[in-house]
Structure of Mitochondrial resolvase Ydc2 catalytic domain-containing protein:
Amino acid sequence: MSSKLLASLKLSQLKHAAFLTGLPSAGTKADVTAVLESNISTRTPVQTSTRIVSVDMGIRNLAYCVLDVPTPSLSHASSTKPSPLKVLEWKRIDLLHPSAIEPQKPPTSSDTQVKHSTKKPAPIPASAFTPSNLSHTALSLSRTLLSHAPTTILIERQRFRSGGGPAIQEWTVRVNMLEAMLWACLTTLRQTSSLDRTLSRTEAGSGAGAGEFPAVFEVLPARVAGFWVGEPGVSLRMTAETFTSPSLEGRRIDPGALTGVSSSSGRKRVQKKDKVAVVRSWLDENKGNGKGNGNGDGNPDVSLVFSGEAAKIAKAFAAPNGRSSSSRGTIEEGKGVMEESEERMGKRDDLADCLLQAVAWVRWGENRDMLAMLLRS
């Protein structure tokens, strides 16, 4: 039944469905249909709440957020307002800081004085980026991410080149190395935990075991950016009326937009400020008071609630810029403490990227569930 319905759709409609569900939209009608069938037809909607840890890769500026997603439903297809997503953590850390990913005590007055010192930080030794040292960093990061008890971990997929240039930058190599090590650590920990659960069940003589290891996925940043930054007025939710509109021009899924390169259609590349603006649109309604509803162009129905230190980050994020976005932020890395945050937030794009990635993953899942329901009906 689903194959017949998909076959009846035009290529532009199929590409729009792939776009709304976070799936590849390039290729012929047969290609896009095959992608949709393999990812949608066998999908079983999740019936329990989930916790997502979304990572924007970096070494000096790694950002991640922890997002609690309520029990999913198809209420977004009706007029009922969906439950808000709860942001429990939202931070940027420097992995080269000795205590960036370790539990910390509250800062003392002497810590604050050191922080505001005008002295330049000590230079980073080249040995910090060797495999022997980065491997320890990757393992500590893995344990930190797992300490939040997620059901899903999203890792930003790194590029090998920037701006399409022929050269591969040194920092790109370093971050790619850390990314590979993070995947290796998580995979090893998964296998180890699986073995431990098997042994525990055998010794206990029952089917009870420890909690399941979180699922880990890679996410293309260009696909996230192309989803949130595009033509105004285009609904990002799958509904029963999605394929009955008079026309689907597909401008939101222009390949040039997804790769960050200008195309013949005149689409401009997605810039960092565009992504920051989307997150700010989610916070603007309540001026960063801990809740935000995305009513900006092309970003409807995004409802967020921030708690703890994440609420302070949200308040600082929504505040006017105090200095250039390329300058260093004023977040005490690894301690979750904000000093002068409302006046000077500093670098926002990394924080924006991890949150955009997490919310996009939730929306893609909702749209896939809706599409699966439409195919079954």
Observations:
- Residues 170-204 form the longest helix (35 residues).
- The beta strands are 50-56, 62-69, 85-93, 152-156, 215-219, 291-296, 299-306, 331-332, 337-338.
